[in-house]
Specification:
Number of domains: 1
Helix content: 55-70%
Order of helices and strands: EEHHHHHHHHHHHHHHHHHHHHHHHHH
Shape: globular
Number of strands: 2
Largest sheet: 2 strands, antiparallel
Strand order of the largest sheet: 1-2
Strand content: under 5%
Length: about 500
């Protein structure tokens, strides 16, 4: 297999990289229009290394993502229909006023007056609340540190209509977007380094349409960098750093915790009890420390995230919503109440995790963490009672390393893009049949999204069960053969 060349480890100052035009059939076929796949004697640019190209591509996609939200930005997300017709909705500006950030209120304040004014507490883990609170401080500073006394005389529900607050809402969106850009560039750099011979695999992350469309919907990108950091640290045999990344990531979003399941499988196979213990202890310790300020300042407010998610029913994107609406069981005494959904989803997820454990322990070779992590997180999302469009970002850094094949990633993300469009059309009322009734197209979009995800799951399972199909292992074998040949 031919490989591209780059800078780094050989006597001539070059290092062998697996080039996508020579490794991936889709990229190879596309390269025929510009000269064909890279060969043995291909040159390399002294500055444009694969990592720098990946970072440049990431920056371009992030910039396009900001442009995609421009229509809503121009009218400060005040046009209720435009956010759906232009698909530029974002939670950020609404929560800026709805959760007290317009008055720089500490999210976990238990002050009676604060809670009377802002009864709705941030329904996210503490990491997101800290980030949003910090972004609010930066926003106020950029807006000239306005006097907040006059705002306290108005009802909180009216603040969003004030021109000065609307200006801050736009600044708040920009501050978050720029912060997300820094974190996403860092995530791309980390992903490019997980498999040193395959830095180009991170290009699938950089060029993801899901990243472009959903990156600014909510704060999910904050967690992505910690997942990328955990993958990077684990490949360098740094269990403490891995645990730190998982713990802080879990304080931002729950799903990074599931990486511990993949690490457990690897450590059981390799009898690395100490590594698993160090990782788990570091994860638990960092999570506790991250949660401590919020819990000490407002225990009841800290618990809102847990109670909110426990008590919510079937919601957007969920297979539970499809079944509930299709059976017309909304309001039925035998409907899928939150408790039923909780029990059903956790039972399925538990069985799924057991299946991943068995697969990982019985596979011919020890699976990679990205593969196991992808399978566990995918299982959680498939039966979760809400599957928001930006949740695709949970899987993105894992998927591009678990199955670095453009064909399968395109199939998966095609389902995500279809759902992204459908959910806004559904919320805008554009999918409702003229004669009334249920929006069957929205159900179809949910099912197709899950089917596309299951396709990628099937490909990863096949790679684990039959390692010769795994592109990463196949390329490693080729590189080993080349090295042996050169040595001889």
């Amino acid at each position: 297999m031919p490989v591209g060349r780059g800078g780094g480890g050989r006597a001539d100052g070059a290092e062998d990289w697996i080039h996508p035009t020579a490794d991936d059939p889709v990229v190879g076929a596309l390269s025929e229009r510009v000269g064909g796949p890279v060969g043995e004697r291909a040159g390399h640019h002294p500055w444009w290394t694969p990592v720098r190209v990946v970072l440049a591509l990431t920056a371009i996609v992030l910039a396009l993502g900001m442009v995609q939200k421009n229509d809503c930005y121009q009218d400060t997300w005040q046009n209720g229909q435009a956010r759906y017709t232009h698909m530029c909705y974002s939670d950020l500006p609404y929560l800026y006023t709805g959760r007290g950030f317009a008055e720089v209120t500490w999210p976990y304040s238990d002050d009676a007056q604060v809670r009377e004014r802002y009864p709705e507490v941030m329904e996210y883990p503490v990491g997101i609340s800290y980030w949003a609170w910090g972004a609010a401080h930066v926003t106020h500073w950029l807006n000239g540190s306005p006097d907040l006394t006059s705002r306290s005389d108005r009802p909180a529900s009216e603040l969003g209509g004030l021109p000065e607050v609307q200006r801050e809402m736009r600044i708040f969106a920009i501050v978050n977007a720029l912060g997300f850009a820094v974190l996403t560039l860092l995530a791309a750099w980390l992903l490019a380094g997980v498999t040193p011979r395959r830095p180009w695999d991170a290009a699938a992350f950089a060029l993801s349409p899901a990243l472009l469309l959903t990156g600014l919907v909510n704060w999910d990108l904050v967690a992505v960098v910690f997942v990328a950091g955990a993958l990077w640290a684990w490949t360098r045999d740094r269990p403490l750093l891995t645990g730190l990344m998982i713990g802080i990531g879990t304080a931002v979003k729950l799903y990074p915790l599931f990486l511990l399941g993949g690490i457990l499988v690897i450590c059981l196979r390799q009898r690395r009890t100490r590594a698993f213990t160090l990782t788990s202890v570091a994860a638990a310790g960092s999570w506790l420390l991250a949660n401590l300020p919020a819990y000490l300042s407002g225990p009841a407010e800290w618990k809102v995230f847990w109670s909110f998610n426990s008590e919510r029913g079937a919601d957007l994107g969920s297979i539970w919503l499809v079944v509930q609406q299709a059976l017309d069981r909304t309001g039925d005494p035998f409907a899928f109440d939150p408790h039923t959904i909780n029990v059903g989803s956790w039972l399925f997820f538990g069985a799924w995790c057991v299946g991943v454990l068995v697969l990982g322990l019985t596979a011919p070779s020890t699976p990679r963490l990205a593969q196991l992590g992808f399978l566990v997180v995918a299982g959680f999302l498939l039966v979760n009672k809400v599957y928001s469009p930006q949740y695709v970002l949970w899987l993105l850094p894992l998927a591009v390393l678990a199955r670095p094949r453009w064909r399968d990633l395109i199939v998966w993300q095609a389902g995500e893009v279809l759902y992204f469009a459908s959910v806004w059309w559904y919320l805008g009322g554009f999918l409702a049949p003229a004669a009334g009734g249920d929006a069957g197209f929205y159900w179809a979009a949910i099912v197709l999204r899950l089917a596309a995800e299951l396709w990628l799951v099937a490909m990863v399972v096949r790679d684990i069960w039959s390692p010769r199909h795994d592109p990463v292992r196949a390329s490693a074998q080729v590189m080993t053969t080349r090295s042996n040949a050169v040595a001889v």
